[in-house]
Specification:
heterodimer; A: 502 residues; alpha/beta; Rossmann fold; 3 domains; six-stranded mixed sheet; B: 308 residues; mainly alpha; ABC transporter involved in vitamin B12 uptake, BtuC; two-stranded antiparallel sheet; 11 helices; globular
């Protein structure tokens, strides 16, 4: 089969973070080609380049073996490339037909005639590929699965022959997902080139003709999924086992925080958190591994006291239900929280470093009564903490926190949260986006907290991080802890547990 | 009875600037650009039209000059908020103060202040103009009548044309519009300029056809009322027209009441449009339906390669 779309030597970075380096990928006419990788492996970035949304820094794009430059999605559409994004690009208040008309090439006739013609085309195409959809309905009133069908019809009717589907089954139930993938397979059999971006091994095995594995912004290998075992695919996606850095096995103390049967309310037959059981013991790091989007963020929200509906038990030793504690009580209970969104939740970028540091204890009266803020004291203590926690790039503690780089911002968060000997540390992706050195510094802090007897919960999508730090590892999938491992844990076994239950 | 008739006859003169300005703002804001600079654009349109009128004495040309001046000034605003992604509220407010200062300065320097001009004669629409009571409604200048087709045209464009669909898509969900191959920034730029031209036309109307002279800051807060009117009308042109007529009625009432000897504080009457707008906003918020009318991306700058 001839090549449809080829990307060679593509690199791309965002704010200094290298999302893609020297990635290459080829899809042929008539095949379903899966692009497999963990979250953050660069799959979506690479496909956004193919769809003309991002401009690559280096590398070439070839269509039918001819070099092409895409200046935008309109160019991509002209080259018959269509992408169904993970987060749908639909105008919610518009009807199905209006949404699809937006993406169609300009044609003659009145708007009303065109709209009617579009409605006819939708009905015809939907019939042809076995979708049922009412073109006059408003998109906001459609279910997620229906909205996805609209997206697919949109790219097909715009004339796409190279079809990119970004995590199409992530939002669907199993049956819906299977129906969708067989439809898509049918399109490939009729000659289209289909790229299936996914992290689900099962979908790859069942529906893909070839698979390219991505890891850390690089394309690792292209294989025939029938010739390779799931275990080998897992090994390729998560990487070779690295020896974990040596750190002494801890002596766990009693359970400080016990979570029993933690559930989110049911929405559309699914629960984001679906019965979490775990217990955090003093002097131990409990790592939660898993593919992103399996309820980790929601779990972190519940535990950190952010608004998140839940039922079940979260018992804190010597206190009771943790959810009834307000932020002041949490501070008094010495619960440290390191949220994933450090600029959104942990720091107020427009305030100074000293203010960000002191804010945790302003309420408790450490910096004076309510009518007086002892700024001098706050600044002195911040200065001391900045030095102790090695926060770099601080010329003056009065400068804005937003000016700190990611790593130093995170160190500032830790300096504040650890300023009162934490008993419990809740950390969500604490080293995401940090360079190796800053990440290592964060890890040292977590280990030090553990060694001084704190119970540490580490939620991370970075398996290396979890393997390196955690004494026990729980694998989270579809809102449950599906497997637990003791240190030293087998990387392959964890990787398999991560994907098997999806 | 006479009082009522002359009151009705004065309503269009007050309502037309509101209607045109609100329509222009709706056009801009439907593309997702929050335009708070209406007060400044009114003044830009007013000054340019007065200058043209003094030089050439052709009202049609003066109105066009007002539109062009406002569109020109809005390029500055568009570059700030669309290209440089400056906060749209701040850029809009800045535009107002800039225009207030600049038009006052130019008006004085060029000695255009208080020079009376001839506007347009009233045209009687026979036989409607002979009707009892409402007859005076049809003794208006040409621009009042033209407002109706302008409204029809813009409404047609927004709701019945493919280009209007694209413009609304840009205002609702620029990511989706971009993915569909619509040039988001170009649409926004055009929407700002076209909408501002309509606001400029409103300013020219006030200066050349209504007040018939240039006075510094002569827009007198009408731009702000137009901003409020757009919110009041939930970004719907027809509701904005209704609101403009309502506010026109209130404003036309002031001289009538004074003539009839009713003493009502002038500021009370001037406050009414804002009070009504506040009331409508509270009513909408209580109803919890505010999300279905406001353009989804209003006030949000768009940049393609932003990672979240």
């Amino acid at each position: 089969m001839p090549n449809a779309l080829q990307l060679t030597g593509v690199s791309k970075s965002f704010d200094g973070f290298k999302a893609l380096s020297d990635a290459s990928f080829t899809v042929k006419w008539g095949e379903v080609h899966a692009l497999l990788g963990e979250n953050g492996a660069g799959k979506s970035s690479l496909m956004n380049i193919a769809a003309g949304l991002y401009a690559p820094e280096t590398g070439e794009l070839l269509i039918d073996d001819n070099k092409v430059q895409l200046k935008g999605p309109a160019d991509a559409a002209r080259e018959r490339i269509g992408m169904v994004h993970q987060h749908f690009k639909l105008v919610k208040p518009f009807s199905v037909a209006e949404n699809i008309l937006l993406g169609l090439p300009r044609s003659d006739g009145s708007h009303r005639k065109r709209l009617r013609e579009t409605e006819r085309l939708i009905a015809e195409k939907a019939e042809q590929i076995g979708f049922s959809i009412d073109p006059k309905k408003t998109v906001a009133d459609l279910s997620i699965a229906e909205q996805q069908r609209v997206e697919i019809l949109k790219v097909l009717l715009a004339g796409a022959k190279i079809l990119i589907l970004d995590e199409p089954t992530a939002v669907l139930t199993d049956q819906e997902g299977e129906r969708l993938l067989s439809t898509v397979q049918g399109l490939a059999r009729q000659g289209a080139a289909v790229i299936l971006v996914t992290h689900r091994m099962a979908d790859v095995k069942r529906f893909a003709d070839r698979v390219t594995v991505m890891r850390g912004g690089r394309t690792v290998e292209t294989l025939d999924p029938q010739q390779v075992s799931i275990a080998d695919l897992v090994k390729l996606t998560v990487g070779e086992s690295l020896p974990a850095p040596a750190h002494a096995r801890s002596e766990p103390g009693p359970a400080l925080l016990s979570v029993r049967g933690l559930k989110s309310p049911e929405i559309g037959g699914r629960r984001i958190l679906d019965g979490i059981d775990l217990s955090l013991r003093g002097g131990e790091i409990y790592g939660i591994a898993g593919v992103g989007g399996n309820g980790q963020s929601e779990l972190a929200n519940v535990l950190m006291g952010l608004p998140e509906p839940s039922e079940g038990e979260i018992a804190l030793e010597g206190f009771g239900d943790l959810r009834t504690a307000d932020m002041d009580q949490r501070r008094d209970l010495r619960i440290a929280a390191i949220p994933a969104d450090r600029y959104g939740l942990a720091l107020a970028g427009g305030l100074s470093i000293a203010e960000n540091f002191a804010i945790g204890q302003v309420h408790s009266g450490r910096y004076g009564p309510f009518w007086l803020l002892r700024e001098g004291r706050a600044r002195e203590e911040t200065q001391a903490a900045v030095e102790r926690f090695d926060v770099q790039g601080v010329r003056n503690v009065r400068q804005k926190a937003a000016l700190l780089s990611g790593g130093n911002a995170q160190k500032l968060v830790i300096a504040r949260e650890f300023s009162r000997e934490p008993r419990i540390v809740l950390a969500h992706s604490p080293s995401r986006g940090l360079d190796v050195r800053a990440g290592a510094a964060v890890h040292q802090r977590l280990l030090a907290a553990r060694d001084s007897g704190a119970a540490v919960l580490l939620i991370s999508e970075d398996l290396d991080e979890v393997l390196a730090l955690a004494d026990r590892i729980g694998v989270m999938s579809a809102g449950k802890i599906v497997a637990e491992f003791e240190r030293p844990a087998d990387r392959q076994a964890i990787g398999k547990a991560m994907v098997d239950h999806v | 009875m006479d009082l009522l008739a002359s009151w009705l006859g004065n309503v269009p003169d007050f309502a037309v600037p509101y209607a045109l300005a609100a329509l222009g703002l709706i056009l801009t804001e439907r593309a997702g650009v929050l335009s708070l600079g209406a007060e400044g654009l009114l003044l830009a349109g007013a000054l340019a039209s007065i200058g043209t009128q003094l030089a050439f004495g052709v009202a049609g040309l003066s109105l066009l000059a007002g539109m062009a001046a406002a569109a020109l000034v809005s390029i500055l605003f568009a570059v700030m908020v669309i290209v440089l992604r400056v906060n749209q509220v701040i850029a809009g407010l800045t535009l107002v103060f800039f225009c207030q200062g600049l038009t006052s300065l130019l008006g004085t320097l060029l000695e255009w202040t208080n020079q009376p001009i001839r506007g347009l004669p009233a045209l009687a629409l026979w036989p409607l103009s002979e009707l009892p009571l409402v007859g005076k409604l049809f003794h208006q200048n040409l621009m009042v009548y033209l407002t109706v087709p302008i409204f029809l045209g813009v409404v047609w464009y927004l709701n019945r044309s493919t280009s209007g669909l694209r413009l609304r898509a840009v205002g609702e969900n620029p990511q989706a519009a971009d993915a569909a191959g619509i040039p988001v920034l170009a649409y926004r730029f055009a929407a700002v300029m076209a909408g501002s031209a309509l606001v400029g036309l409103a300013g020219a109307y006030i200066a050349v056809l209504s007040t018939k002279m240039w006075i510094a800051d002569m827009s007198g807060g009408r731009g702000w009322i137009a901003v409020a009117l757009v919110i009041f009308a939930r970004w719907s042109p027809w509701k904005a027209l209704a609101g403009a007529v309502l506010f026109g009625c209130i404003e036309a009432l002031i001289p009538q009441l004074a003539a009839a000897g009713v003493r009502l504080p002038q500021y009370f009457v001037l406050m009414t449009p804002y009070a009504v707008t506040l009331g409508v906003m509270i009513w909408v918020a209580l109803g919890g339906r505010q999300n279905n009318a406001q353009p989804g991306a209003l006030g949000e700058p768009y940049v393609r390669e932003e990672r979240r």
